[in-house]
Amino acid sequence: MLINIYPPMISTHPDQVFPNWRRPSVAFLARLRVACLLPVIAASFLVAQGLAAGTYYIDFVGGSDASAGTNKSTPWKRCPGMSGFSGTYIHQAGDHFIFKGGVTWLGLGIAIANNGAVGNPDYYGVDQTWFTGGSWARPKFDYAYNTGTGINLGSQGYVTFDNIEMCHVSSNQSQGTGLIVGYAPVHLTVKNCYLHGWRTTAAKDDAHGGIIFTQQIFAGNETNIIDNCEIENLENLTNGLCVRAMGTIRNSHIHHNSSAILFCVDFDHNEIDHIGNPTSFDPTAHENGVYLDPQAMNQTVGYIRNSKFHDMDIGANMAYPNPRFATIHIYNNLFYGTQSGQLAINIDPYDYGANATSGAVYCYNNTFVNYFNNEPAIHSASRGWPSGPRLAKLVCQNNHVIGTGAFVTDASSNSATAGSLTGDHNLIQTPAVASGQGYNSGNLWRPTSQGDATVGTGVIVPNNLFTTDMLGVLRIGTWDIGAYQYNGVTPTPTPAPTSTPATTPTPTVAPSPTASPSPVPSPTPSPSPLGLSFGSTAGMITAPFIVNSDNTISQSLQTVDPTQGGRAVYNFNVPSAGDYAVSANVDAPTEGNNSVFFNIDAEPVSPTMIWDISMTTGLEQRIASWRGDGTDVASQFDPKIFSLSQGVHQLIIVGREAGTRIQQIVIQKVPAPPLNLRPSG
Length: 681
Prior knowledge:
- By secondary structure, the protein is mainly beta.
- The protein has 3 helices and 46 strands.
- The chain starts with 13 loop residues before the first helix and ends in a 12-residue tail after the last strand.
């Protein structure tokens, strides 16, 4: 409900209200309208999401638990749940705990005792304007190799950790400890974090180390996300796991340990390397690259996609799918460098004694550079069928295999390795032939010209499983073979990867090459008009936008051309004509992840219809603006006001920068400016 906050009207004649020298300017009235609009929109969000949460600041060097903790000048020393915290605190779902950049908390574990809420997670993270030293650096939780767990979640849910360095934990048992540990949490997000350094004094090696969930079969495990993180154990190398039982791992770099991933559901847009060499100190331990078993995570579909696998050795496979009673899609991946004897993809149908023919694996548009001669790219393991289990179905299409004596797969129909096999539109090349056509390590085996052998020789993958290549280039018309779709752009040479990471890793979402323009279809209306407040997932969402488990939408690549971005289309009903503004709960964490395109009743265009969002800490409310003739830090139309007639209209949001997340959207009527104001003085 709109509240009349204006004073009584004194006169209807403007000269009696304001003399010429006091008459308000257009800019003044616009600012007044925004001032009136802000509390109304804020109230809308409070109704939608409950009471406002608190923000608390923590500085181990300059803080005190006896302080209020509610501003930067009176921070706490520790956060609630941290060892030794003695402050006064009452939890509210959605509370934010802001740790001062560049400060280290040494040897202090955290026990998370509270849940956040749907759309309102508790946030443990940063404000990049608050730091010590000459420039911002992540706050560091250094556990000083104390025995035990760094952060213990138990089964708490709706929690986000953002832009924190966590390191140096030690275990005296083979499993159940790590930098972040939980039993059965849900809706956990770990983003923009750097996790490293774990070791054990146990005689056996198993599930301890980085992010470790001791349960994997529980409702909601697929809602847990690792996003844009770096996880490695270069300091110790030969023990534990980087990750156990996370639902989604995306946009991350996982490297340098004896074993990497044990159980996940979706491995997307990652780089994984230097796993398995050296091996675990325990010769009985089983090393893994990415072991994906949907059934073990209470799911029936899994994905390994859009990722780079390289330089993995000894006992560690690269991609290790177990499709028992499930379907696994493996597409748009690049495999190269050293490999173990388990090769690039090792399909294992082991089903824990059921001895069934089950599961399907679909391998589309992967690029393999085989390490061994006379070996397949895709190995399907025999488990002794008919007395043991076997894979029911394997489909291999559009794969590019480079190697001496190479072949696509060693599986065959109606055999111990597969019930059925479909294999077509694959390309096999020797290294010499591939290099002669420009496929080489310098460009990561991408096509360089329209006439290359992979270009235009593939088949369209059914059911719209995916529509882009691993770099986000649209696959339109005739598809190419391999992980890349040629778009007329000669790839820039890529430096060979180094075996040692940078001293101070700071993962960022790197912009992907921009796809060539293609026509955008007319907006598809949502099934029925929405009201004036709705979730971002309520419209028609198209790639490369994805729907995240926290009910936000985002895309993982940068698209500076609005014809190439993800599209979200919402039909909404306006009950009465007037001026309206758009606001949303958004997550815009950095200057590289804080913009989208948007418009009402027409496609947005660049650059005038860019919404440059002021940076947020987690999900925060922002009113939409248009850049117009302004800049990315000074929009011309702020806010952007739309004059809408009564009836149905269409909001169109198009992705621009990677990692910008949108959640709840409100179309809010703007109060009309006052016709008369009482002059002061």
